[in-house]
Design a protein that fits this description.
It contains five helices and four strands. The chain has about 140 residues and is of the alpha+beta class.
Length: about 140
């Protein structure tokens, strides 16, 4: 009886693990929802990331000390890391742009089945340190 319970638990764990892996990284033709083509998914994603890049470029990076700086994410629709330095005073406008992109372009990308059609790898985020150099926020990979 103990072996049966143990076997059932192991099968349940293995089955759960496979489902978790399949959910975000692999898809078969049968599991791809009707939606956007690969080309359309990439067009939506590139457009969203261009908007985010423009928002980062518009964000001021002026500082007097490193405490005037913060890091923002490098992508809106897919997994990303906080690696871009901007001034804390610019963060509210950047966050507003980021959320706007997430509720428009990224929403379309997700609704179109793009995470399964064109899955993206999960990044490994490294720690960054902030500094204020020559009046501008800068970031570098922490040692």
């Amino acid at each position: 009886m103990k072996r049966l319970v143990l076997a059932l638990l192991l099968v349940g764990c293995v089955k759960s693990r496979v489902d978790e892996q399949d959910a975000g990284t692999t898809a078969t033709t049968a599991t791809i929802p009707a939606g956007l083509s690969v080309e359309a998914c990439e067009t939506v994603l590139v457009g969203a990331e261009k908007k985010l890049s423009d928002a980062r470029a518009a964000a001021k990076a002026d500082c007097k000390t490193k405490d005037d700086c913060t890091l923002v994410y490098d992508a809106a629709c897919i997994g990303s890391c906080p690696v871009h330095p901007i001034a804390k005073s610019a963060e509210p406008a950047y966050t507003q742009a980021f959320e706007s992109i997430r509720t428009t372009s990224c929403k379309d990308w997700n609704a179109g089945g793009c995470p399964k059609t064109t899955p993206k790898p999960t990044p490994t985020c490294r720690p960054f340190t902030l500094a204020c150099k020559s009046g501008k926020c800068v970031a570098s990979v922490a040692d």
